[in-house]
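Colleagues,

For the teaching module next term, I've prepared a clean inverse folding example: a structure given as tokens, and then the sequence designed for it. I'd like students to try predicting residues themselves before seeing the answer, so please don't circulate the second half yet.
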């Protein structure tokens, strides 16, 4: 029996004034996307309309999610609207699941025009949690400022959206599904693909899987404990670390993606990945790792819970890239880090005589450097590291780098870290997060602080805390000029740099899912003397933190007694 073509319907709507995407796309409370009529559809239409019609007609896009609540309903809407807006083919992960690194990988592999990722990263899931929509472009990386501005401008004047409300797909059935649409010459095609396979093929071409497998299976094998935190990485961990590389099945926990991530924020940090920390401290595991919801962030722990600061992690990777076949074959071009990340990577770059780029927060800046051949490895202090194999940070790739280093050096995590400090010095580093602040209070705090550090007299200031004296060398509101296209990013954070290379950084962020503003304070102090490399981070940085609190008056101005999170 011949079926009738599926009708394309135009629905009248009205614009929303709060759909400007940020560094991580558009994030709001899930109730906003689910409960506000047309809120989801408006934003999807804005994303699709931001693509030039000539490029959009018949093109291929990738769609995936971290499995959080409301993802399936959102994917159904995306499919229906993509069909109505001329997209020719959608490639979607099995059951709607694709990690952010896998989306980047697939976009690049099949030369798609872009991809839509449904994630709010490490923010909580469930009906009371957060939801996000992120658009990655043709290089596999996050949207540029120009693309995000185009999406926002469309959203401000949107009066209608196109949709095929009768189109239904089965996310559980692998393979191709085709649909005839009214007034369309070619059928609309949806391909449900294995969530792991393409990404696994890429990793096989990067790493020496035999060396890692031997590390995990040979006599005296390394015992590992991996916590996927009920995010999307679970199936990847099972397939790659357990099935492919031979780690015992009980090495991996919380590997079933859940809509609420088991009721905890899927954040790989000492604050939230407490079950991993406890397991490492209470057993004989030699290596532990946790991942966030969409699989782009990670945390590394060594034996007895030895914590690897993410800024140290990227520096140690950089110093040991020769252990990875991919870099032996392709060479290493340069390194990059976000401005707030510690300068540990700078010291490795200098020793290797390679360029070091300092960028604003946001992976899109790294993408430009990698596309132009300037950068091979990059990282952020927020537990994100990646290389030019894709254009996103990549948690599981980072874990495989660490396992490769351990296999090659035949050393444990702590010994590798301490030898790195002995060679390059230790950058003590921490971050204080003040979350859920009143946006106006946060704005005025940052404005007034900028006024203080911009005063000419500030550069001659000396701060005495106990027996420490810190002399200001320079202070500014960080501005970045992209060496590739000359684009300028202003107001990227307030920096105070002292004569002993210590630093304080203040940044305001709005990526908290509609839960107010976040002010982050970063403190860093360099120590060359190996005899002083085992001190408590908070003790070392206490004087700097005291200066930061005094300068900003953050407790008095926000009514807080301390930060929500310390990392």
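(Answer key — instructors only)
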């Amino acid at each position: 029996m011949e079926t009738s073509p599926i009708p394309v319907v135009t629905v009248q709507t009205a614009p929303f004034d709060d759909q400007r995407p940020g560094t991580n796309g558009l994030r709001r409370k899930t109730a906003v996307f689910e409960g506000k009529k047309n809120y989801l559809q408006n934003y999807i239409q804005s994303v699709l309309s931001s693509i030039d019609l000539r490029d959009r007609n018949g093109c291929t896009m990738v769609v995936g999610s971290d499995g959080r609540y409301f993802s399936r309903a959102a994917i159904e809407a995306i499919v229906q609207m993509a069909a109505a807006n001329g997209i020719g083919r959608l490639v979607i992960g099995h059951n709607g699941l694709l990690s952010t690194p896998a989306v980047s990988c697939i976009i690049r592999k099949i030369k798609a025009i872009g991809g839509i990722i449904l994630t709010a990263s490490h923010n909580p899931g469930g009906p009371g949690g957060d939801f996000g929509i992120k658009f990655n472009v043709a290089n596999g990386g996050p949207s540029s400022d120009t693309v995000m501005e185009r999406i926002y401008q469309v959203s401000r004047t949107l009066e209608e959206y196109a949709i095929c409300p009768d189109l239904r797909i089965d996310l559980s059935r692998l393979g191709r599904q085709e649909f005839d649409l009214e007034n369309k010459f070619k059928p609309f095609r949806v391909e449900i693909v294995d969530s792991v396979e393409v990404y696994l093929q890429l990793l096989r071409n990067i790493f020496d899987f035999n060396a890692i497998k031997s590390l995990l299976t040979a006599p005296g094998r390394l015992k590992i404990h991996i916590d996927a935190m009920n995010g999307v990485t679970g199936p990847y961990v099972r397939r790659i670390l357990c099935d492919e590389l031979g780690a015992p099945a009980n090495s991996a926990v919380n590997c079933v993606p859940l809509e609420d991530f088991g009721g905890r924020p899927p954040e790989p940090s000492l604050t939230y990945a407490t079950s991993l920390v406890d397991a490492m401290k209470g057993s004989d595991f030699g290596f532990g790792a946790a991942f966030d919801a969409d699989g782009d962030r990670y945390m590394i722990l060594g034996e007895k819970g030895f914590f690897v600061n993410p800024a140290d992690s990227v520096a140690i990777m950089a110093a040991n890239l020769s252990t990875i076949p991919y870099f032996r074959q392709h060479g290493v071009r340069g390194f990059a880090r976000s401005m707030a990340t510690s300068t540990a990577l700078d010291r490795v770059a200098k020793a290797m005589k390679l360029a070091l780029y300092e960028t604003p927060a946001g992976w899109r800046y790294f993408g430009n450097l990698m596309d132009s051949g300037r950068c091979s490895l990059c990282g952020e202090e927020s537990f994100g590291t990646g290389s030019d194999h894709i254009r996103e940070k990549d948690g599981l790739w980072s874990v495989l780098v660490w396992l490769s280093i351990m296999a090659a050096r035949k050393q444990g995590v702590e010994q590798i870290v301490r030898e790195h400090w002995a060679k390059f010095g230790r950058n003590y580093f921490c971050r204080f997060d003040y979350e859920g602040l009143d946006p106006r209070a946060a704005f005025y705090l940052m404005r007034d602080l900028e006024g203080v550090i911009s005063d000419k007299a500030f550069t001659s200031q000396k701060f005495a805390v106990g027996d420490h004296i810190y002399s200001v060398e320079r202070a500014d509101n960080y501005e970045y000029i992209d060496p590739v296209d000359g684009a300028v990013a202003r107001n990227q954070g307030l920096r105070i740099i002292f004569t002993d290379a210590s630093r304080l950084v203040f940044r305001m962020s709005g990526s908290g899912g509609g839960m107010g503003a976040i002010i982050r304070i970063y403190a860093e102090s360099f120590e060359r003397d190996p005899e002083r490399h085992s001190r408590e981070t908070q003790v070392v940085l206490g004087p700097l933190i005291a200066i930061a609190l005094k300068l900003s008056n953050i407790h008095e101005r926000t009514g807080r007694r301390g930060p929500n999170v310390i990392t």
